[in-house]
Amino acid sequence: MTPSYPVGLIWLRRDLRLADNAALYHALQQCEKLYCVFVFDDSILAALPRADRRVEFICQSLSELDAALRETTGRPQTGLITRRGLPQDIIPALARQLGAGAVFCNDDDEPAALARDAHVARSLKSQGQLLLRFKDHRIFARDEVLTQSLSPFSVFTPYKNAWLRKITPFYLSAYPSERDLASKLADLPDTERRAIPTAADLGFAPDTLAGLRLPTGVSGARQLLADFLPRLPQYKTARDFPALKGPSYLSVHLRFGTVSIRELARLAHEATHNEDWSAAAREGAATWLSELIWRDFYFQILAHQPYVVERSFKPAYDAIEWETGAEADALFAAWCEGRTGYPLVDAAMRQLNTSGYMHNRLRMVTASFLVKDLGLDWRRGEAYFAEKLNDFDLAANNGGWQWAASTGCDAQPWFRIFNPVTQSEKFDPDGKFIVRYAPELTPLPAKLRHAPWLAKPLELAEAGIALGRDYPLPVVDHAAAREKTLARYGILKKES
Ligand SMILES: Cc1cc2nc3c(=O)[nH]c(=O)nc-3n(C[C@H](O)[C@H](O)[C@H](O)COP(=O)(O)OP(=O)(O)OC[C@H]3O[C@@H](n4cnc5c(N)ncnc54)[C@H](O)[C@@H]3O)c2cc1C
Known about the structure:
Blueprint: E1 5-12, H1 22-30, E2 31-41, H2 42-45, H3 53-73, E3 81-85, H4 87-98, E4 102-106, H5 111-126, E5 130-134, H6 156-166, H7 169-172, H8 181-184, H9 217-228, H10 235-238, H11 251-256, H12 261-272, H13 279-304, H14 326-337, H15 343-355, H16 360-373, H17 378-388, H18 394-404, H19 420-427, H20 432-437, H21 457-463, H22 478-490
Parallel strand pairs: 1-2, 1-4, 2-3, 4-5
This protein binds flavin-adenine dinucleotide.
């Protein structure tokens, strides 16, 4: 193909890798010379707490990408341009300064991203330049998997079946996006030759990832993937037990694009047909593929029903009255800080607070506890997760919360209420996960770690634990809370 643009600019956002990158591939096809930029968006940074692991994750990943660009070209004067400010101002100005005919990026269906991109596209157009967007971070875009009547799916299983019917090697193959990079990457103008900023340079606390087993950048994703693949056959059986190393821990890499979803889905899909594997091992792969399809499912829900950002997917559920006031605020604080007196909930919240990760089973348990034991609005929990999760992704987080609150598409029925104690007994039978994050309960025998308030006084005394002093008493009684919740949701009886 003859390049259409003498100069182009690729704008990286949630796709921090050079391999199998759709926009990069198209930019290299269509441009004779290419620059590469990442913008630290002030409208996002301003809203973050000053200690934010994600900022450090991005900085470290960009630093690796910048070095990879120079290594690819073998020219020290090449690399990544970084800017800080509003992309709406920066991208058009930079495109003009560099003389880029087009700006290439991978698309993003989050409402704020759509508004930002529309703004940038208008400004570029007024300068005679184009914004070209490509599908990259999901397998199927919003309208690629639809029902027979061409409307969006709102139930997962039929969506998944349609997804599996549609999938072909075409959708899973990698873009050879590194092929012409060495020859086409432009030397940086002198003004742009700067080191990639650190979190501290951006006004954030340094070393927020220190002590965490969270490898960053493309190399970090490769490390986690290599560790996970031998465990893939056991995924179905191990994934629900937080004390085990069951899942992949790749979510933050999918969030920032340091791994390609095509590569992961291809590996999973191929493994489901691997005749050298046992049926159980193939099921492990099929279950993991299913999780990757949930990701696509929630992306298309957000794209088609952006109102879910503020409201219930099922509008009738907006009539539910949540607890408010000082007591509700105190319960919310206890939930956030991991001191509800329910050990599995507390351990999970402490895992989130100290690492930025929470196991999927525990996301379901803690979300259900907030909504159906404490009677609090799911949006309060959603916002807390959004602040704390390294892998925070609007579509998946909103989908997960609305699932737990029963307000979402294909959600948990409203009258199904997780019992935090039986969940604990089932999924952390020895209380090993609990004591990892609530070590004060270690002296208790395993069977008492799920509900310490049920231990006999002598058992507590032998463990040297005084409830209310060493570990909180439960902030609510589950049985009573359950009745209250059934009454709260009872207004919906007509709907279900
Ligand atoms: C209340 C709640 C909030 C959540 N918030 C987020 C979020 O902000 N960001 C996020 O990526 N996931 C979210 N999830 C989904 C899920 O918990 C995480 O994706 C998963 O725990 C990440 O760990 P992993 O990479 O080890 O997962 P694995 O089990 O290895 O799964 C592989 C990948 O599949 C995707 N995935 C798995 N489960 C889901 C799911 N239910 N919905 C959508 N995608 C899924 C993720 O990209 C994940 O990395 C949420 C779930 C709930 C119940």
